[in-house]
Automatic annotation (TrEMBL):
Gene behind this protein: rab13
Membrane topology: Lipid-anchor
Native species: Merluccius polli
Name listed for the protein in its UniProt record: Ras-related protein Rab-13
A cellular component term, taken from the record's GO annotations: plasma membrane
UniProt GO MF annotations: G protein activity; GTP binding
């Protein structure tokens, strides 16, 4: 079966309870909005495949519960995320102040170099605004991450923000020298391993040859010793008389000569 996407990116939304994380995901994945607030229990996810620069990118968007009591569960999902979206509510300055804590949580739990983005949600309620756009922009700039003011309710900047993050991750993964070098280093590693294997094979062959030569020499020596022993025994058994004869004839000669 043909693959329906070129890339799979795992994204994670974090932020205080009630800032609109679930609503942003539902707006993005289903283009829907519900004003009834049902606080997320633990963790949930939705998927949507988008087109990024001609590539089909499947986004698996993980929705975390903002409530403190779920933190142990939710932080376990940071490590697998390729992009993390920090969300605050522009009408709630406490949720903005807490972004620092969420960032700390990322530093402690996420993979190094994870792409991040800051969203100031509920920008449709301008009358209740507590956090200026400039304040949000500055925080994002200080941390070198993207920033958008969004509204899940009025569908402002929702698709755009997800698209921007997906593009960042795509570019990072295709341009990143680490991935290239890791590819190169993988092929190098493979060559290196092959060389090592060849060397090992050569060493093994040499060792085997040495063992064969040594064994052959030992066998030859043993055979020579056996032959010598056998010859010695044969000489002893069959030539006893000859020796005696020789001795006697020698003594005879001696006798003759003495005579
Ligand atoms: N006006 C307005 N209200 C919003 C917007 N987004 C969310 N809300 C409302 O804010 C409330 C909380 O939204 P959720 O998406 O459930 O918040 P959450 O961040 O998922 O909260 P937890 O699951 O508890 O962490 C709901 O009543 C939403 O209707 C928005 O863009 N504009
Ligand atoms: Mg939620």
């Amino acid at each position: 079966m043909a693959k329906k996407y070129d890339f799979l990116f795992k994204l994670l939304l974090i932020g205080d309870s009630g800032v609109g994380k679930t609503c942003l995901i539902i707006r993005f994945a289903e283009d829907n909005f519900n004003s009834t607030y049902i606080s997320t229990i633990g963790i949930d996810f939705k998927v949507k495949t988008i087109d990024v620069d001609g590539k089909k990118v499947k986004l698996q968007v993980w929705d975390t519960a903002g409530q403190e009591r779920f933190k142990t569960i939710t932080t376990a999902y940071y490590r697998g995320a390729m992009g993390i979206i920090l969300v605050y509510d522009i009408t709630d300055d406490k949720s903005f102040e807490n972004i620092q804590n969420w960032m700390k949580s990322i530093r402690e739990n996420a993979s190094a170099g994870v792409s991040q983005m800051l969203l100031g949600n509920k920008c449709d309620i301008e009358a209740k605004r507590k956090v200026t756009k400039e304040t949000g922009e500055k925080l994002a700039k200080d941390h070198g991450i993207r920033f958008f003011e969004t509204s899940a309710k009025s569908s402002i900047n929702v698709d755009e923000s997800f698209m921007a993050l997906a593009r960042d991750i795509l570019h990072k993964s295709s341009k990143k020298p680490v991935s290239q070098s890791s590819c190169i280093s993988q092929s190098h590693q493979r060559k290196h391993n092959n060389n090592n294997n060849n060397n090992n094979n050569n060493n093994n062959t040499n060792n085997n040859n040495n063992i064969i030569i040594t064994t052959t020499i030992i066998i030859i020596i043993i055979i020579i010793i056996i032959i010598i022993i056998i010859l010695y025994i044969i000489i002893l058994l069959h030539n006893n008389t000859f020796i005696f004869r020789s001795l006697s004839s020698y003594s005879g000669v001696c006798c003759v000569s003495f005579k």
